[in-house]
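Section 5: illustrative case.
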């Protein structure tokens, strides 16, 4: 796996994997590229988007392509941490039974775990999920169950605010990326989605996704090889450091946002873990572009999806988050000079 030839072969397989996804989930090339980067960086993903834009279809397609198992759970206000681990029922003889829940059902073959409407679940559920995301393991039935190949994907209900629990900073920081999936704006794409029968049968559509030659069991080793192979020059180290510092003290870099006191905008900037995730994602992007050295463009391409959900605004500006954060991120990228 460590040889340049093998990594090159794997890169072509990864690009082929991406091409097949784009044939099934059309009009989402930017989101698909970021999701592919997350898969090969072995990072969890928080999905943003309205209802019916294809988030579940996208994740099922990824799971189908990787060849691993897929599990999904719906966030509800009465969901308990134990519901992720096991469920109880009465069998046909009226006897109580306990069976593995969605986290344990597929064992070590679990590749994609989708938590739909995660902000409907209580903080106790978030706490268990955080541990699973960090350790890829959970304790149950007096033993430890490991899920070494699992990636967690979650989305939030953005419409209804009642009976929801917003993710705390620590929870959001565990996600490598926050990827926005919007409805396609291209009329030709919308026409296909509405009138082409191929897109009306989701199960058949996903079934057309071929299994990648890479295999989900090989992703951890491949990810580490990518991180070791792709190198960054000292100037790139300094550039990444400046990008990080600008998230904590934007006023020190002459950054301004319209109608905002920039010194009062942020409660906190990105964490050091967030910056390590930025570099990890940027290296995967460089690898997908066929390079073994990091360019400023790689950091810039993944900066918004890896940084935006790690920047926390003061309450007086929080209600304008969807407008202010993209402007702030763009200002940082424009103001910090690339080498």
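Designed sequence:
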């Amino acid at each position: 796996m460590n040889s340049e030839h093998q990594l090159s072969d794997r890169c072509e397989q990864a690009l082929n994997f991406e091409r097949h996804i784009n044939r099934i989930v059309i009009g989402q090339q930017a989101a698909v590229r970021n999701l592919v980067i997350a898969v090969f960086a072995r990072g969890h993903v928080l999905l943003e988007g309205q209802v019916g834009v294809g988030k579940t279809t996208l994740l099922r397609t990824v799971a189908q392509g990787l060849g691993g198992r897929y599990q999904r759970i719906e966030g509800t206000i009465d969901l308990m941490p134990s519901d992720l681990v096991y469920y109880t029922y009465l069998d046909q003889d009226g006897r109580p039974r306990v069976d593995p829940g969605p986290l344990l059902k597929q064992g070590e073959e679990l590749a994609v775990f989708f938590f739909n409407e995660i902000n409907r679940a209580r903080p106790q559920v978030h706490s268990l999920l955080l541990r699973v995301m960090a350790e890829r393991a959970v304790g149950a039935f007096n033993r430890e169950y490991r899920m070494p190949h699992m990636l967690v994907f979650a989305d939030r209900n953005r419409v209804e605010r009642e009976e929801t629990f917003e993710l705390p900073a620590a929870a959001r920081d565990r996600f490598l990326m926050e990827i926005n999936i919007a409805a396609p704006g291209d009329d030709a794409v919308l026409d296909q989605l509405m009138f082409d029968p191929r897109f009306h049968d989701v199960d058949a559509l996903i079934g057309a996704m071929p299994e990648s030659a890479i295999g989900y069991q090989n992703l951890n080793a491949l990810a580490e090889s990518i991180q070791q192979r792709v190198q960054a020059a000292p100037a790139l180290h300094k550039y990444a450091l400046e990008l990080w510092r600008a998230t904590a003290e934007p006023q020190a870099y002459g950054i301004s946002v319209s109608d905002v006191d920039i010194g009062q905008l942020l409660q906190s900037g990105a964490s050091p873990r967030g910056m390590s995730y930025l570099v990890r994602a940027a290296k995967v992007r460089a690898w997908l572009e066929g390079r073994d050295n990091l360019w400023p463009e790689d950091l810039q391409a993944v900066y918004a999806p890896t940084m935006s959900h790690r920047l926390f605004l003061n309450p007086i500006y929080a209600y304008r988050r969807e407008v202010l954060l993209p402007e702030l991120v763009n200002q940082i990228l424009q103001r910090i000079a690339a080498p």
